[in-house]
């Protein structure tokens, strides 16, 4: 897969942000196209270390700025930042940018991930301040 180098902001649900982070990786949409998903695939579930998961609609996963990152501007990801592979979803709060990705599942139905099942908002849009669910 072709490597891409992007610059994006990183927003934590606890109200801090890091601006202009350089990420290096592959576009998730390129991986999804190569997997030849069926038309029923409407969501992705990222599976990570220790059972952590997070969910995204396929439309979000197919954006040009959503990466499976293996590096930053300073080199390969450090273990504490998600080595060997991190999902980067700049237009969502950081819990959607899951560390230590081990697999991507395509599903027809949405399933809440680790934090979404514990009361975090399903979308997590920082511009709308979607931190916690209204459930």
Task: Give a concise summary.
With 135 residues, the chain is mainly beta. The chain has helices spanning 28-34, 58-61; strands at residues 4-11, 17-27, 43-48, 53-57, 67-72, 75-76, 86-88, 101-107. The protein has a single domain (4-128), classed as Sulfite Oxidase, Chain A, domain 2, CATH 3.90.420.10.
Task: Assess the beta-strand content as a share of residues.
Answer: 35-45%
Please describe the biggest sheet, giving its number of strands, its sense, and whether it closes into a barrel.
5 strands, antiparallel
Mean pLDDT: 95
Low-confidence stretches: none
Do you know the CATH topology?
Sulfite Oxidase, Chain A, domain 2
Q: Helical stretch count?
A: 2
Distance from N terminus to C terminus (CA atoms, Å) equals 40 Å
CATH class: Alpha Beta
Structural Rg: 14 Å
Shape: globular
How many structural domains are formed by the residues?
1
3D structure, described in words:
- It is a single chain.
- The protein has helices at residues 28-34, 58-61; strands at residues 4-11, 17-27, 43-48, 53-57, 67-72, 75-76, 86-88, 101-107.
- Helix content is 8%, strand content 36%.
- β5 (67-72) and β6 (75-76) form a beta hairpin.
- The protein is globular and about 40 Å long.
- It has one domain: Oxidoreductase, molybdopterin-binding domain (Sulfite Oxidase, Chain A, domain 2, Alpha-Beta Complex), CATH 3.90.420.
- Strands 1, 2, 5, 6 and 7 form a five-stranded antiparallel beta sheet that branches. The chain has a three-stranded antiparallel beta sheet with strand order 4-3-8.
- The protein has 135 residues and is mainly β.
């Amino acid at each position: 897969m072709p490597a891409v180098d992007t610059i994006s902001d990183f927003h934590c649900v606890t109200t801090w942000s890091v601006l202009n982070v350089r990420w290096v990786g592959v576009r998730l949409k390129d991986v999804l196209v190569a997997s030849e998903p069926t038309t029923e695939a409407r969501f992705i579930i990222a599976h990570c270390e220790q059972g952590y998961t997070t969910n995204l609609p396929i439309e979000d996963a197919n954006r040009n700025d959503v990466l499976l990152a293996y590096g930053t501007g300073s080199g390969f990801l450090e273990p504490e930042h998600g080595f060997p592979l991190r999902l980067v979803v700049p237009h969502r709060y950081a819990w959607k940018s899951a560390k230590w990705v081990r697999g991507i599942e395509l599903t027809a139905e949405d399933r809440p991930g680790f934090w979404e099942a514990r009361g975090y908002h399903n979308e997590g849009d920082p511009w709308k301040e979607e931190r916690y669910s209204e459930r």
